[in-house]
Amino acid sequence: MTIPAVAKVAGVAVPTVYAIFGSKKGIVSELLDEARFGEAYQTLITEARKVTDPMVLLEFPPRFARRIYEAEIPVENLLRGAGMVAPELAAVEDERNCQRYDSQLMVIDALERAKLLRPGLSRDSARAVLWTLTSREIFRMLVRERGWTADEYETWLRDALRRELVGA
């Protein structure tokens, strides 16, 4: 897939595609963001911002992970089918992983302030555990490769996070 091909299908000039998206990576990023961050995601954000109980806040990473990863499956399939694979998807994924790591800090901070982190678990380790367990790779392995339902994944992730972060 090339930028000229995208421009042709869109019925615009090549410079227009570059002006709007900048590159293939920009196109991939926009398509995935459209799928990931729709109305359901915005509703979850609104709910999470109202939460003050750290244990209730810990319920949100599994919900976010499920919604995002489920929503992007059709777009990823489309992109792969269109020939936009490894480099573009990998670059976007790297950026999203950094954003996810940063955005999850509020959960760790809330658990730490409430002295709920599992004994012996440092703040940095807790942050790494949360980031790792909510990764797309684990979702892909369990849901897409092992046939788990999204509900099973979300329940497992919620329980795993409780176990690993607070010991409950």
Quick take:
The chain is mainly alpha-helical. 79% of the residues lie in helices and 0% in strands. Helix 3 (24-36) packs across helix 6 and helix 4 packs antiparallel against helix 6 (60-81).
Distance between the termini: 49 Å
SSE order: HHHHHHHHHHH
Helicity, as a percent range: over 70%
Strand content: under 5%
Please count the beta strands (DSSP E, at least 2 residues each).
0
CATH class: Mainly Alpha
* Individual helix count: 11
The radius of gyration computed from the alpha-carbon positions, rounded to a whole number of angstroms, is: 18 Å
Largest sheet: none
The CATH architecture name reads Orthogonal Bundle
Question: How would you explain this protein's 3D organization?
Answer:
This protein is mainly α and 168 residues long. The chain has a single domain, classed as Orthogonal Bundle (Tetracycline Repressor, domain 2). Helices cover 79% and strands 0% of the residues. The chain has 11 helices and no strands. The chain has helices spanning 3-10, 14-21, 24-36, 39-50, 54-57, 60-81, 86-103, 105-113, 123-133, 136-145, 150-166. The relative contact order is 0.12.
